[in-house]
Every structure is written in structure tokens, then in C-alpha cells.
Amino acid sequence: MKVLGRLWLILVFIFLYAPIAVMILISFNSGESTTEMQGLSLYWYRELFRDKATLEALKNTLLLSVSAAVLSTVIGTLAAVGIDRMKNRFMRGAVMSVTNIPMMNPDIVTGISLMLLFVFVGTLLGLESYLSFWTLLIAHVTFNLPYVILSVLPKIKQMDKNIPEAALDLGCTPWQSFFRVELPFIMPGIATGFIMAFTLSFDDFVISNFTSGSSFETLTIHIYSMIKKSVKPDIYALSTLIFAVVLLLLVVSNLSDRDGEPAKEKSPERRGAARFRGKEGGAAK
Amino acid sequence: MAARGTRGQGLMARAAASPHIVWSVLFIIAPLLFVVYYTFTDADGAFTTENVSRLFTSNYVLIFVNSVCLAFIATVICLVIAYPTAYLFSRMKAKRQRAAVLLIMIPLWMNFLITTYSWMTLLEDTGIINSALRRIGLGAAHMINTPGAVVVGMVFCFLPYMILPIYTVMSGIDEKLLEASADLGCNGWQRLVRVVMPMSLSGVVSGITMVFVPSISTFYISQKLGGGTFQLIGDTIESYFVGSAINYHFGAALSLVLMVLILISMAVMNHYTDSESGERTKMV
Questions:
Q1: Do B162 and B241 form a contact (C-beta atoms < 8 A)?
Q2: A153 and chain B: CB distance < 8 Å anywhere?
């Protein structure tokens, strides 16, 4: 039984890592083929750093994901504070349901619904090219918001409501009590939300595909257009580099909180959910 | 003083959520209304039901049936692979569990377009798997551009979304319950079927939605691994928005049906499991 279990896990991991292994191997190919190894070389890594379009797309992606993450973290944190204090149950339920829509809808529907809005408003205003950095930013903030709110809200709920009240009694203004007492307490939730928003944005493909114009290309859109033509190993080289960075970050963050919370509390499900958008979305990603 | 503080806070709270509420109305609700608007208008903006009636022609019904079938098969395969995997994870030592979960999450961080492309490299007629088969003397198998290849791509992309929620629920099951069931005479198999399975139902349900929804609406997996030999809903929708035959109105109708289909099935499933797991918890 034990041997069988181990064998099963090995097979599952082979399945999950086979394409990644292929990607890493081919990135060191000296030839142009993506199916046959002709020899080992770093040629495609050099090519990658000479390719202006790819570097430009990487820069665009970083700019977009940081802006979207900052904006959605600010709006989302404020929203979580507001939702937590809403007295009216109906109102609160309505806001939460609407917030969850982008998480439940398939990414393709979120993408085309936003595209239709932009198309409609764009034509109304008589703009020629209405899809730009700004439409992408709006789209990314929209799909990030539920994840930020869902990371911050539980932290606010955990907080003892007597603490900010005590701050008020001790003479804080409501603003001071928020910034000095509540904000530090919910900071871990805000940080999680920010990181989640950043990775979702960085990885998003499906929604960006419908809301980006030709003027502003993100990395995933760039990869998609490259894949439509013939793929050269440079795209594998790029992914191998991203893979290395991600691996490094994950290992470092895992080592650093080894003494912290036990594994179970890390809620892989939530992170998984986040990636989920990313995936088809992000990963799609 | 205190009263003023509370009221001030109430006002502040209302104001705090307002950017989000405005944002939601503008960019969540309004876009969905535009989907409905485009569904029921033609290119001149006049009301029409033609887009909807066109959906029920055999061509599009077939596309819907195909997509539902492939997504269903991919979901079942994911469940069959994920359930024992999650169970095995939850029986490991804490330290190993962390490592295992990390290993499941790493593929999620990869760009799906690229891993899908890697699968092309693996499955092609002259690809890695076929060259290996040839080398050991087994004939080559045609795999790329078949529905099977699309299912493999879906299972690869979304398997972690099945494993992670099931694992989370399983690792939360109290060890004492399992011990109690053993004390009361359950063998390992009975323990799995009678205790672990009912308690992990909620994880299974979230896993199913997390796999089924992206599977049914994917378009790049079917484009790359299906080779455009057959169309899924996602491909069809995409082709009406960014493809050569742009028709926002009909594309909107397709998306509307897809959305309604998914929301209904999720509502049914949530309803079913809420009552189910509620009862189970009471029983336990």
C-alpha cells in the first residue's frame, strides 16, 4: 500500500513537471527547433536580452501589475473596512455578491463584458483606439478587487472592536484610530491581498486578451502572439528565467516563515483560488 | 463625545466602501448589462432575438455539447487523480505536507500558454513521447490535434485546483475522529469511505467548480492542442471578438448563455452541498 502510494505520487509529479522539464531543456537548445535538441548553448538567453519587444512587454507587465495591485489594494482595503461596518444586512449581502461576480464568472466572460463596455463608450466618444493601458488597468483592478477584499476582511473580523473604541476614548480622532490602531492590525491581510493582486495581474492572459489594444502589449499577450507564429526557444528561455525567480521567491518565503504559522493555516486553497484566475486567467497564466 | 465618535465612524465606514461600490457598478454590473444589451440588438442597435435563436442551430448546439463533454471528462479525470493524491498528502508528516503542497503550487506559477506549448512539444507526431516510443520499438501514436490531447492539457492546467481544496479540507479533519472510528472497529477502507469522504465533500465541490469553469471556457488549450480541428465555446466566443469574423452581438449571446449555464450549475451544486455537509456535520 505504501509503495503503491509513493508510486502514485511520483506519477502525478511526473505529469505535472514533464512540460516544465521540456521547457527548461529546450531553452538551452543550440538549434531553432522546439522538439529536437541539437546541442547545449546559452544562445537563446542572449537572444532574449536582445529582443526589444519582449523586454518592452516585460516592462509594461511590471508597470501594469504594480499599478493594478496598488490601486486595487487601496480600494479593496477601504471597501473591506466599509463592508465590515455595514449595518444593513441586505446592503452588505448585495455588495459581497457583486464583488464575487468576477471570481465566479469565467474569465472570458469578464473579459468580453469589459470589452463591450469599452467599445460602447469608445464609439460614443468617437475615439479611434479606445483600448489602451487605461482599459487594461481598469480590467485588472476589477478582477483583483475580490481577492484583496477577501484577504483583508477576515483580518478585520478577527480584530477586537473594543481596541479602536478604546483608542477613541483615549482621545484619538476616528482618523487617528484607523491609521494608528486598525491599519497596523490588518496589515498582514493587506500584504497578502497586494501580493495576490500583483501575481494575478502579472499572469493574466484571458482578460487582457480582450481589453488590451495594440499600443500596450503585456508579456502574456506578447507570448500569445509569438505562439501564433512559430515559436523559437527564446520564449522557453524567458519562462525558465521566470520559473527560476518564482522558485527562489517561494523557497525563500517558505524558509523565512518556517518558524511561523504551521502549514495548515497557510490556506493553500485560497492561494490556489487566486492562481485559478491567474491560470486560465493569470496562468493563463 | 463617544456618540460623535461612533457616528463619525459610521459615516467614514460608508464613505470607505463607496469607491468600491462605484467601481463595481461601473465595471462589474454595467459590463454585464452591456452583454445583455448586445445580445438583444443587431449592428444598427435595433432590438432583435435573432442572435439568441441562432444559438439553437445544430452547429452551435454541437459546440456547446462538445465543450460540456470535454470539460466534464477533464473534471472527472482531475477528481480521480486528485482525490488519492490529496489523501496521501494529508497522511504525510507536517514538514513533508508543506513540501508537497509547494510542489503542487509551483506549476501554477508557470505561464499556461507556455506549458500548453510544451505539451505540444511532447505530444506531436515527431515529438518527445513519440520519438521515445519509436526508440523502444513501439509504433508511434497520433496524439496531437485530438480531443484527448485537449483533455490532457485541461487536466494539466487545472489539476492543482482540484488537489489543493480537497487537501485543505482533508488536512483539517481532526485526527481524533479517525482514531475514534478505528477504535469503533472501522478498517482503513471503511474509514476512508465512511469518515474521510463525507467530510471532504466541500473540498471536492470547490475543486469541481475550479476545474470545470476554466475548462469549459478555455480557448488557448483547444487552439494549441486541438489544432483548430474542432471548436469549443471559448474558441467560438474569442473568434467573434478578436478573430476575423467579428460579431460582438452574437459573441455576446454566446457568452450570456455560457455565463447563465455556469451560474445555474454552481447555484445547484452549492445548494446541494450546503444542505448535505450541514447534515453531515450534525451527524458527526
A1: no
A2: no
